[in-house]
Write a structure and sequence with these properties.
This protein is 41% helix and 18% strand. The protein has 381 residues and is α/β, with parallel strands linked by helices. An 8-stranded mixed beta sheet has the order 3-4-2-1-5-6-8-7, with helices on one face. It has a 6-stranded mixed beta sheet with strand order 11-12-10-9-13-14. α11 packs antiparallel against α12. The N and C termini lie close together (11 Å).
């Protein structure tokens, strides 16, 4: 069956950056690598603009990166639905659009793109159908994941080539640091990117790093970890480009980066603290030691997701190393015990970098999300 050519992706921004981050990468990949006509409907263009500065938050329609960007507002305009409709992260499609889908002679492939998870049940639920109780439409659940029986994770065809070119080019790295107002790292300096949720106990990490023998430069995007910076340094977070120092630690604030430059940041740092979904996946392709913080949920549900991922990620690691990773990631997500868990984690820096390579190869072998989604929608559903 030929590949459906027109795609609508709907994104309701809840987490500010994770939802739109995933949708934007997917839309760009479908348009750029598969030549598909993609409309991306977004209900918060201001949030979108933070990761894609080319977006004009005052325009209802615009083209960017080969994708038609549409402001999702009410009342929803009358449009012909795409042959594939992707409802990202369980957002609710407009009633008028659903009705238009039902009226098409050939019904669109309707995909509910779910959240990423390493839990075992994901493979069992991936691809399941859910007939609509009111309309002649069928929705299919598409689960990203870390196993071959899931939808995989996003991976552009040229990502490895771009990463390798950057990581083997000292000049390109120096130019990137200069863009951020920093010299290239020197001597034993450790560079760490820190992207975390509000309320994270980063001040405990700062206290640990200030006493470390090697100098530590911690790079924090503007608007992130402000409470922790204030708590540790006793003053408000500096403006973009500013820095605060204590002991071996320097905390620098940099502007929110677009996705391509954020990738380069992950490739350039020695260790990356990431959160949610989009930055989490990108850190796995960076081949650097990383620390993941799942989105905090009531009753500790996020800790179950963390444990499920660690169970897969730590396969093949020596017991002591797996224990150090689990202990530190768990401490970071619980907000306690980071200082005591960090030394054992960081002592295995080289081993973790090697493991990141084998893990990335494993993920690549599972197939990437865009390719699997195109194949799924090209089959008769």
């Amino acid at each position: 069956m030929p590949t459906p050519q027109s795609w609508d992706i709907f994104c309701s921004v809840v987490d500010n950056y994770g939802d739109i981050g995933v949708c934007w990468r997917l839309a760009r990949q479908l348009a750029g690598e598969y030549g598909l006509r993609v409309r991306l409907w977004v209900d918060d263009l201001a949030a979108f603009r933070r990761i894609c500065p080319d977006i004009d938050a005052g325009r209802t329609t615009q083209n960017c990166g080969g994708v038609q960007i549409c402001y999702w507002q009410e009342p929803f305009p009358p449009v012909e639905p795409g042959e594939v409709v992707v409802e990202a992260f369980a957002c609710n499609l407009p009633d008028s659009y659903l009705k238009a889908m039902a009226e098409r002679p050939r019904k669109p492939r309707w995909i509910n793109l779910e959240y990423l998870s390493a839990e075992d049940w994901v493979g069992e639920c991936h691809g399941l159908a859910s007939p609509n109780p009111r309309l002649p439409l069928v929705k299919h659940f598409f689960f990203p994941g870390f196993a071959a029986d899931t939808g995989g994770v996003l991976l552009e065809r040229d990502l490895f080539r771009r990463r390798q070119a950057f990581q083997f080019d000292a000049g390109a790295q120096a130019a990137f640091w200069q863009e951020l107002g920093l010299p290239a790292p020197h001597g034993e300096e450790i560079r760490i990117s820190l992207f975390c949720y509000p309320g994270s106990r980063a001040e405990d990490l700062f206290d640990c790093w200030r006493g470390q023998a090697a100098p530590v430069t911690c790079l924090v995007p503007e608007g992130i970890a402000g409470e922790a910076i204030a708590a540790f340094f006793g003053q408000a977070t500096p403006a973009v480009g500013g820095a605060l120092r204590r002991g071996s630690l320097e905390v620098r604030v940099f502007p929110f980066l677009d996705q391509d430059r954020y990738d380069r940041l992950l490739w350039a740092c020695d260790c990356n603290f990431v959160r949610g979904e989009d930055s989490f996946v990108r850190a796995q392709w960076a081949l650097r030691p990383m620390v993941w913080q799942p989105y905090p949920q009531a009753e500790g549900t996020h800790l179950n997701k963390l444990a499920a991922f660690l169970g897969r990620y730590c396969e093949g690691l020596p017991r002591e190393t797996a224990g150090a990773v689990s202990a530190f990631w768990g401490a970071w997500s619980r907000g306690e015990g980071m200082a005591s868990a960090w030394p054992a984690f960081w002592a295995r820096q080289i081993q973790l970098a090697r493991h990141a390579e084998s893990w990335a190869a494993c993920l690549q072998g599972n197939g990437d999300l865009a390719a699997k989604l195109v194949q799924f929608c090209s089959n008769g559903l």
